[in-house]
Amino acid sequence: MSQWVVKGLRTGVKTTNYPRLPDTAPGLSCGLPATTDLRGEHAQALVARCPTGALSVGRRGIEVDQRRCIHCLRCRRGVNQQLAWEARYEWARVTDKSNRHDNRFGAAFRRSAHILVVDAGDCGACLNEVKQLNNPYYNMHRLGFFLTPTPRHADVMLVVGAVTEHMRLALRKAYDAMPTPKRVVAAGACALFGGVFGPSFTCGGGVAQAVPVDVEVPGNPPPPLAILHGLLVAAGQRQPASSCG
Ligand code: SF4
Description:
Blueprint: H1 3-11, E1 32-33, H2 40-49, E2 55-58, E3 61-64, E4 85-86, E5 93-94, E6 113-119, H3 125-132, E7 145-147, E8 156-160, H4 165-177, E9 183-187, H5 189-193, E10 215-217, H6 224-234
Parallel strand pairs: 6-7, 6-8, 8-9, 9-10
Antiparallel strand pairs: 1-4, 2-3, 5-10
The structure holds iron/sulfur cluster (SF4).
């Protein structure tokens, strides 16, 4: 018998209570840097250390574009003054271009939505986190989310990776083949802006350059609960994060 089944019988249900209750188990989220009231030389030094331009000095001190953070931790380690760090995991936000208002998901989608996962040039990290959504701890089936291999049956397209040139047309065709209403969730820094790979001669600047994106999930990679939050936001079952930084 599977060890998971044996363990389940011995210890009881281990599935997370999220989104009914917040999940506070240790190690669920690597967190994200947050806007910090730091100024002067220290602030300039921290901004210069960020390899992706996620940090800038603004009205509130060091301001963070969390979409661009790749979790390199250069603003946390080996510095005199660290950037503040927030440990929550509800990171998904709705894009300005989202079609959610003129193309609403009906009530039926609250009970069942089929998801097409597209690897558009992922290194494996984000895809691995997506894979966890099907394990007994996250168990996305209990929320009505099911995977489908065909765009014809998909309500939500979940895209990871920076969208390589070879994947651009395939992504567009898959999007066009999906019935309406439909949503696109881009997960991970590469899917949001190209990450450390793009724009370059092999890939562009993320999913939005190929298809319209409704929900963005920052992180490099985002933890499973952040991706789950993104799916819940896309299906209209959860509020998006209020800001990104
Ligand atoms: S952890 Fe994020 S914000 Fe900090 S330096 Fe690295 S990429 Fe920049």
